[in-house]
Design goal:
By secondary structure, the chain is of the alpha+beta class. Helix 5 packs across helix 6, helix 5 packs antiparallel against helix 7 and helix 6 crosses helix 7. The two termini are 31 Å apart. The structure holds adenosine-5'-triphosphate and magnesium ion.
Length: 337
């Protein structure tokens, strides 16, 4: 049993869409990366689940903010406040003098300035140490891959803001590609399509539901083939139902899916021959929330001719990896920055 005064370490995956906190044993919190401010000042009205709940239902006075963009900090102050509130939710009853170690995920593509901003955000917790771990590496560890082995592994993380593709060998990244196309691009594509083809405006949350239920990277039979949702008609502004089909949403999503697919092909193309041979044997390890888009794994497998291993818990892989790093920081020294 932990004393309320014992020093604690935690890990954070500050994602474009979801923020997760873990300790060395378990996931402590997983909530949307949202914050809502009260009118007039910068006082916080809500964060996480509560903020997402009121997002797009707020009146003019409340100001909702998504502090992360493309997987990195876009609004430093909002990120700091959001994380402070989320950490307090977890450690409500504990009285630490300070935290011990904080391990944070960081996109592999983050610049030095973006990494510095992330470290600054963590400084508010006065921990003895802050370490950054590249998210695709954390995801690989979380998926149970031995990153130290000499055999090349291709990790593909399709998140909310960005897609990152890396080939890892001997604890390091040998080949890397990243693009700002992921789950948010899919949702925006759904909104644009419905507006253009049906003259109906959908809210963000409704479009997310459309994407998850009838969206897809190819036509599949493992889900509904149509969905009726409510939106607002462009001409008269009145609320209307609109019937959308799996076929049309798959067709609309083809553009962003193709961008991801092409980046994967470029990554494979730029791999040195020995690593290519490994990937031929090991296949592709697919993770990130948008790996759950219907038919995504099948399509990437068809395009590349490779086996695609779809992670069983793609929303959690980075956090699971960070948690393992927290358990044994010495063992993972080479991936700590
Ligand atoms: N069942 C599903 N089908 C399709 N998309 C899904 C599903 N579940 C979650 N998503 C999408 O996954 C994305 C969030 O994934 P994830 O939590 O991995 O992103 P993130 O880590 O917050 O973002 P990033 O890695 O870009 O910083 C969202 O766009 C969400 O809509
Ligand atoms: Mg992520």
């Amino acid at each position: 049993m932990l004393s309320p005064f014992s020093k604690q370490s935690f890990a954070v995956d500050l994602g474009n869409n979801n923020t997760l906190l873990t300790d060395n044993r378990q996931i402590l919190l997983a909530q949307p990366s949202y914050i809502v401010f009260n009118p007039g000042d910068r006082s916080v009205r809500a964060v996480g689940d509560e903020a997402y709940e009121i997002f797009e239902k707020n009146h003019d006075q409340l100001r909702p903010v998504r502090p992360l963009r493309w997987g990195v900090i876009a609004d430093y102050e909002s990120t700091t406040l959001m994380l402070d509130r989320l950490v307090r939710q977890v450690y409500r009853n504990r009285l630490f003098s300070r935290f011990d170690r904080i391990v944070s995920g960081v996109p592999y593509c983050a610049t030095d300035v973006e990494r510095m901003a992330l470290r600054d955000v963590m400084e508010q917790f006065h921990s003895s140490q802050v370490n950054l771990v590249s998210e695709p590496i954390a995801a690989a560890i979380g998926m149970g891959i031995d990153i130290r082995e000499a055999s090349g592994r291709l990790i593909m993380d399709i998140g909310g803001g960005i897609t990152e593709i890396v080939i890892i060998s001997l604890s390091g990244v040998a080949v890397f590609q990243s693009l700002k196309v992921a789950g948010d691009s899919f949702t925006q594509t759904v909104i644009d399509h419905v507006r253009h083809e049906h003259r109906v405006v959908l809210g963000w949350k409704t479009a997310e539901q459309v994407k998850m239920k009838i969206g897809g990277a190819m036509i599949t039979t493992d889900g509904p083939d149509q969905l009726v949702v409510k939106g607002k008609h462009l001409s008269d502004g009145l609320p209307v139902p609109v019937k959308l089909t799996h076929d049309e949403i798959v067709h609309a999503l083809d553009t962003p899916v193709r961008a991801i697919e092409e980046t994967l092909l470029q990554t494979l193309d730029s791999a040195p021959p020995e690593l290519s041979a490994d990937i031929y044997n090991n296949g592709i390890h697919l993770t990130g929330g948008s790996a759950l888009v219907r038919g995504m794994a099948q399509r990437l497998s068809l395009t590349t001719g490779l086996t695609v291993h779809l992670d069983a818990t793609p929303l959690l892989s980075v956090s699971k990896g960070l948690s393992k790093v927290l358990t044994n920081p010495r063992g993972y020294q080479s991936v700590l920055n």
